[in-house]
Amino acid sequence: RDLDVAHVNVPVIGGHSGETIVPLLSQATPSVSFPRDERAKMTTRIQNAGTEVVEAKAGAGSATLSMAYAGAKFTASLLDAMNGRDDVVECTFVKSDVTECAYFATPIKLSKNGVEVNLGMGQMT
């Protein structure tokens, strides 16, 4: 698609593993579309990324570095928000009333006070 992945954002909602991970490819920025079969393959690969890392390490490790990166990125975003930046949004697993689940990952607008607003799932197509 001729996109630099460093400048692409895809909201990911849901849970922690497998089919509970739901990448919202239709909400990607910049906007991009994929044929149904390609979208299905990408979704499965995103859902199984942690397993793919473990398999690549031949069982000699986990996706710990991926989790550390995600934690560092979230912390940097939270610090930006706490320092007054007002456009900070991160997908994060929080207590939520968006679904029947008590906790659910969705895009969250952060502010100097922490969670400003749960942006929910948005328009899904």
Keywords:
3-stranded antiparallel beta sheet, globular, 125 residues, 31% helix, 5 strands, single chain, two-stranded antiparallel sheet, alpha+beta
Overall description:
There is one protein chain. Strands 3-4-5 form a three-stranded antiparallel β-sheet. It is built from three helices and five strands, in the order ββαααβββ. The protein has helices spanning 36-47, 49-56, 64-82, and strands at residues 12-14, 21-23, 89-95, 103-111, 114-118. The chain is of the alpha+beta class and 125 residues long. The two termini are 20 Å apart.
Summarize the structure.
31% of the residues lie in helices and 22% in strands. The protein is an alpha+beta fold.
Write the layout of secondary structure elements.
Blueprint: E1 12-14, E2 21-23, H1 36-47, H2 49-56, H3 64-82, E3 89-95, E4 103-111, E5 114-118
Antiparallel strand pairs: 1-2, 3-4, 4-5
Q: Which descriptor suits the 3D outline?
A: globular
Give the uncertain stretches in residue-range form: none
Q: How many helices?
A: 3
State the distance separating the first and last CA atoms. 20 Å
Mean of residue pLDDT?
A: 92
Order of helices and strands: EEHHHEEE
Structural class: alpha+beta
